[in-house]
TrEMBL record:
InterPro entries the UniProt entry points to: ATP8_metazoa (IPR001421)
Record's protein name: ATP synthase complex subunit 8
GO MF annotation: an example: proton transmembrane transporter activity
Keywords for this protein: CF(0), Hydrogen ion transport, Ion transport, Membrane, Mitochondrion, Transmembrane, Transmembrane helix, Transport
Topology within the bilayer: Single-pass membrane protein
Ranges annotated as spanning the membrane: 6-32
Cellular-component GO terms for this entry: mitochondrial membrane; proton-transporting ATP synthase complex
Subunit relationships: F-type ATPases have 2 components, CF(1) - the catalytic core - and CF(0) - the membrane proton channel.
Subcellular localization(s) per the UniProt record: Mitochondrion membrane
Length: 53
């Protein structure tokens, strides 16, 4: 909308950028990957790969 002042566009851009960065950083740091000692790797090796073409 051309009626809006440019300062409001800048304020909205900064606000949405900060919200986007906060949301992404919270999602990144809240993710807890499972440790390799708890995940059994032998079950992956035991399952046969049956390719059916």
């Amino acid at each position: 909308m051309p009626q809006m002042a440019p300062i409001s566009w800048l304020t909205l851009f900064i606000a949405f950028s900060i919200i986007l960065l906060l949301f992404n950083s919270l999602n990144f740091f809240m993710y807890l990957p499972s440790s390799p000692s708890t995940s059994p790797k032998s079950s992956i090796a035991q399952t046969p790969l049956n390719w059916k073409w």
